[in-house]
Amino acid sequence: MRATRWVLGSAALVAVPWIAAAVVPGQQRYVLHVLIFTALYGALALSYDLVVGHVGSLSLAHPAFFGLGAYTLALLATEARWPFALALPAGIALAAVVALAVGVPMFRLTEHSFAMGTLGFAIVTQVVATNWVDFTHGPLCVTGIPKPQVGALRIATLPAFYWMGLGALALVALLYRGLTTFRLGRAFHAVRDNETLAAAASIDPLRYRMLAFVIGGGVAGGIGALYVSYVGVLCPGELTVSLSVNLLVMVFLGGVGSLRGVLVGAAAFTALPEILRMAPTWRMVIYGLLLLVIVIRAPDGLEGLMRRASSRRRRPASSGA
Amino acid sequence: MALFETRGLTKRFLGVTAVDAVDLTVEAGELVSLIGPNGSGKTTLFNCVTGYLAPDEGRVTFQGRDVTGVAAHRIARLGIGRTFQLVSVFPRLSALENLLTFLQQHQEESLVGRLVRAPRVRRLEAAAVERARSLLDSVGLGGRTEAPAGTLSYGQRKLLAFAAALMPDPDLLLLDEPAAAVNPTMIEQMKAQIRTLHRQGKTVLLVEHNMDVVMDISQRVIVLDHGQKIAEGAPEVVRRDPKVVEAYFGR
């Protein structure tokens, strides 16, 4: 039963380009574009939730790792003519290595000072991207980033990018689930909830915080690389603090520490501003008001709302039986 | 060779010597109590030997191995379990998950193995769950396995922390005031638990304020006052020691 639903759901997700073409023929390109962003944001939010939700370290460095992966691919693909199949892993590896190097001093800080330290790192990264014009082209942006090509497979059309985004999201979701369940997941949560007691349970807090930070950073780098190969242009503005704010909204208003919650959050908060384009003047005002309503009505995020709704649905059924 | 030993263990805080050149020996299978008035350095000593504080002087050996200044998670991995004076559990995890969390080194799995839910991982998990359930049963929490630890009563959390410390089957168990701030029924239950452990051959070092508990169950008592060891011996001998009486009741 569950397996059938799973197969049908996956098949429907894969078939979206055809469904969109049939249902909204004039808008297929736009719908796919929003869905590609949703998939990439979903994967990015999951990688962020590993750090923020599962080991409980409020890092604001995620835009920097996203940017490192993005710039690695952009510069390697344009200046050095590296193929996508090499430039993507290079982006992931560089972001992960930098996360490791930055994590060593940063994790000597705790709580608020950790947040400030990582914010500082993110700002420095953006300033370097803006001002090191010889290397990053600064505000002139890296342009003409080629479409990904792996062997004979060339990802150039919107449906192809959609399937690429969907595949990336599926991989990241699988990794997320593997990391946050069983022994590893319990160690993450132990470190988050009570560091002192975690050590008594032979869990090294620093090691697990580092693990989440480095994997989260590497994944963010990979998503950054995919993002620029879709968009084709990379400007330093992509790395600003507002990316952290978006991710925080998706994770905390979606459902911190929950796969479903974070994905719903990513979908809702990518699609919402698009839907609100119907009222262009008031768009951001309505968006802000909606955020406020969610914070007040569902402080534990959309995941909390869904959980309460499904338990309400179950209760009358069981009392009737 | 003693299972566990400190030699000249000293810890100072800003000029106050909290633990002052303490020599302490625990043989395998012993049940030893560490007592002393408030502020006599018992918990500081516990923290020094479990890696939570670095001692300023002296040596700690466990199973013939120098473990002075080794990090807390490594000490735990070597087989020293401990509980905390202020009850310490993972409040958001269920009682069962609290125990499973303590079984880290017994579940070496590869990331790939977990991603595909390899049969070996399932088997290890099932064995761990079974052990956790039986431990929860033995402390009387068998009916609360799925309850978030934060929703349990104070006494129940204390029992949960005790069961969790037993989960990795430590060679030495350090209990910091297991009977403090729990009701008399719970104290009896705690005493019975510790006795059972002792009968099973476990080595236990106990910090405790409740004299009834100490005198009732320990084989040997060590008394600290102002960070120094002032007496050591069988419970009934220590109880009559004038130095001990003076430390507790004043002159």
What would you note in describing this structure?
- The complex is a heterodimer of chains A (321) and B (251).
- In chain A, 77% of the residues lie in helices and 1% in strands.
- By secondary structure, chain A is mainly α.
- In chain A, helix 8 (158-179) runs antiparallel to helix 11 and helix 12 crosses helix 13.
- Chain B is an alpha/beta fold and 251 residues long.
- Chain B contains ten helices and ten strands.
- A six-stranded mixed sheet of chain B has the order 6-7-8-3-9-10, with helices on both faces. A four-stranded antiparallel sheet of chain B has the order 2-1-4-5, with helices on one face.
- In chain B, strand 9 and strand 10 (228-233) form a beta hairpin.
- Chain B starts with a strand and ends with a helix.
- The model of chain B has no long low-confidence stretch (mean pLDDT 87).
- The chains are: A mainly alpha (321), B alpha/beta (251).
Considering the chains and any ligands shown, give keywords for the structure.
heterodimer, A: 321 residues, two-stranded antiparallel ribbon, 15 helices, 1% strand, B: 251 residues, alpha/beta, 6-stranded mixed sheet, 4-stranded antiparallel sheet, 10 helices, 39% helix
